[in-house]
Amino acid sequence: MGSTKTKTHDEQVTLLEQVIAKYQGQGRKALMQVLQEAQAIYGYLPLDVQRTVADGLGVSVAEVYGVITFYSFFSLNPKGAFEVSVCLGTACYVKGSQAILEKIEEELHIKAGECTPDGKFSINACRCIGACGLAPVIMVNEDVYGRLTPDQIPAILAKYKEA
Amino acid sequence: MSMNKVKVTIDGVTVSVPASYTILEAARAAGIMIPTLCYMKGINEVGACRVCLVEVVGGRSLAASCVSPVTEGMVVKTNTPRVRATRKSTLEMILSDHNRDCLACIRNGNCELQDLSELYGIRKISFEGAKSPTRYDDLSDSIVRDSSKCILCGRCVAACKKQDVNVLSFINRGFNTAIGPAYDISMADAPCTYCGQCIIACPVGALHEKEDSERVWAAIQDPNKHVVVQVAPAVRAALGEEFGQPIGTRVTGKMFAALRRMGFDKIYDTNFGADLTILEEGTELLNRIKNGGKLPMITSCSPGWIRFAEFYYPEFLDNLSTCKSPHQMEGAIIKSYYAERKGIDPKDIFTVSIMPCTSKKPEATRDEMFNPALGVRDVDAVLTTREIARMIKQTGIDFNKLPDEGPDQDLIGEYTGAAVIFGATGGVMEAALRTVADILEHKDLLDIEYTAVRGVDALIKEAELEIAGIKLRVAVAHSTAAARKLLDAIREGTAPQYHFIEIMGCSGGCVCGGGQPQVHAQVLMDIDLRAERAKALYEEDLLMPERKSHKNADLDALYKDFLGEPNSHLAHELLHTHYQQREIYPDSIMGE
Ligand code: SF4
Ligand code: SF4
Ligand code: SF4
Ligand code: FES
Ligand code: FES
């Protein structure tokens, strides 16, 4: 999703308008495509972007929201500088990843899918990331941590808090 | 279009049916009932629930009959061990994630899921699956959402789409899939018209009206309250269904008899308010035409339509007639004129409106429907047809054996045939034309049936008339989807210059409003509910001694003795209102 931080709000608005203009008249059919391009501009899809897309394509906000929440590659919330992905795949789940997730939520005071107000951390509950041998697994951006217990979480997060 | 027919054999019965039929429809033609759950003719034909599976000889897997077309020579079996076992386990699967609280459920006894469970002899649920997260939302004045009862059939989503409002969507995925507005916000904050078509479509108890019957019982039992009830025209065309009468049976007489036995102090017909509306609205129309006012003027009787305009077409708010809807007018008259004549303090009067409509509930609680001078609301409680049916049953009255009675006859008891047809699409237009034509022509015209504006087949109807040398162009739209089409055409300048437009929020008009009895999807395969119910109203119109609103003698007295004349200052104060633009998903509803 690249260098979203570098665009100003006005630039983003203009870009989104251009995207919508490009698909004018196609309505519902263009919804997926427009949302993908909108997410590339904003990095995520907040309510005002959903409203703009809905108006532009002549669909309802509920339809837009339905599509966003159906596909895991769309996000309602911004991503933090550090994205903490918690695997909830079967192997990890069996080995207690739910408790890991809860510990992370508690430490960061946000829920899965949300971003801390300072923009530093976001939590993403994801499906199997192919490291089942290490279950339960989390990733912080590219760094993988395996065979975790909840009490290891604060130390891991601390490293990034200082970064 | 050629009516190609094909021969299919279903459970040994060979029938010849149109090639466009599904297996489900062909089976029905052969007299074989295939169960359905997600299917609703013309609304939801998606093959999602797999309850309607059948075996097609030669096919490998079972087919969902509601979406599988017939083909020449097809042989179908609907009752094999495999079909029965699969249907049963599909049902058990649905029931395993269902809040099976039938005893305390609003749909107990009228639930498509309960019926199927009974039909398939479900005695225990083999797998007790995890229950998905649920949401109970009763914050709006109109619609309650209880997702613990939801089976994700999608009928409500499709009904809302048919209305072209699209408030409800499938949201989230997998185990967390639910139906709701964006962000799963409350229906109180959603850009919803409260038309209730989603309730009508729901096969289970996951969507229903906010109930007000306990408040009404309390008022009836309170010796200090003078409880005045009024009933909308469309109610008489459907109430009988709740008591096992055939669809389309007119139960006007029994309805009034039941209300009298329930203990209401005074019983009136909203038809009086409808006649009053015609005088106010007809006068407003003639004034707008004469004085270059905003045209086309659009009717304002349907609160679902009003909310639709406020959310989605605010630039048309000045086109709306300023008239309150008939029951609000009648409520206002009861709390003023009636109270004064009877010597009752308006604060001691409790007005109840029995309506075919779920949008009338929040209409009655709007700020504009409060009379600050008297310190009272026009209408204190609104009950749907379904709610009054439940209340009648609670009293132990044998509805079908009741004698025929009428409303009370003093002060505001009279009504005309013009008012009765308000409940069907085109009815308000026709009633208005009957009066406007007489006024303009200065005579008592005999030709009063405006059939061009009747009927349900076209969602938008048009007519051009010439009355006393004046050319009048009118249009009628039913359903918010039709309203959207018509208004878009006007906005783009592709529509003719209309003078007067009738819009009702629900297809067919109030007879198919969101507060009317829910009819099983299987029954809806054979009939057009809108037309059946409308017949009852046109029949009553024919039976009335007076069929024009301005011939209502009680109404005449109301103007002579109290209001002065239509659109007088007092009439404006009591009977007219204004509208406000509403924001769609404003940031403020997002909380935090
Ligand atoms: S929705 Fe139907 S099956 Fe479910 S609890 Fe209510 S009556 Fe019973
Ligand atoms: S009440 Fe009407 S507008 Fe509102 S969600 Fe239901 S169908 Fe849609
Ligand atoms: S609320 Fe009712 S109609 Fe809508 S999906 Fe659930 S069960 Fe089906
Ligand atoms: S299940 Fe977690 S890595 Fe595969
Ligand atoms: S799949 Fe046919 S009724 Fe649901």
Strand content of chain B: 5-15%
Overall outline of chain B: globular
CATH class of the largest domain in chain B: Alpha Beta
The tally of structural domains of chain A comes to: 2
The count of helical stretches of chain B stands at 18
Q: Which ions, cofactors or small ligands are bound in this entry?
A: iron/sulfur cluster, FE2/S2 (inorganic) cluster
Q: Any idea how many domains of chain B?
A: 3
CATH fold name of the largest domain in chain A, please?
Glutaredoxin
Q: Which percent range describes the beta-strand content of chain A? A: 5-15%
Taking the alpha carbons of the first and last residues of chain A, their distance comes to 22 Å
Q: Would you mind describing this structure in some detail?
A:
The complex is a heterodimer of chains A (163) and B (592). Chain A has 163 residues and is of the alpha+beta class. Chain A has seven helices and four strands. Chain A has a four-stranded mixed beta sheet, covered by helices on one side. The two termini of chain A are 22 Å apart. The mean pLDDT of chain A is 91. Chain B is α/β, with parallel strands linked by helices and 592 residues long. Chain B has helices at 23-29, 81-96, 112-119, 155-162, 197-201, 213-221, 252-262, 270-291, 303-312, 326-342, 360-364, 385-395, 417-420, 427-441, 480-492, 529-543, 553-563, 569-575, and strands spanning 5-10, 13-18, 53-56, 63-64, 75-77, 136-137, 143-146, 169-171, 178-180, 207-209, 226-231, 266-269, 297-298, 349-355, 370-371, 376-377, 381-384, 460-467, 470-478, 500-504. The radius of gyration of chain B is 25 Å and the shape is globular. The N and C termini of chain B lie far apart (58 Å). Chain A binds chain B through residues 47-48, 50-51, 59-66, 69-72, and chain B through 165-173, 180-183, 190-191, 584-585, 587, 590. Bound molecules: iron/sulfur cluster (3 copies) and FE2/S2 (inorganic) cluster (FES) (2 copies). The site of one FE2/S2 (inorganic) cluster has 12 residues of chain B, from loops. One FE2/S2 (inorganic) cluster (FES) binds at residues 36-39, 47-52, 64, 66 of chain B.
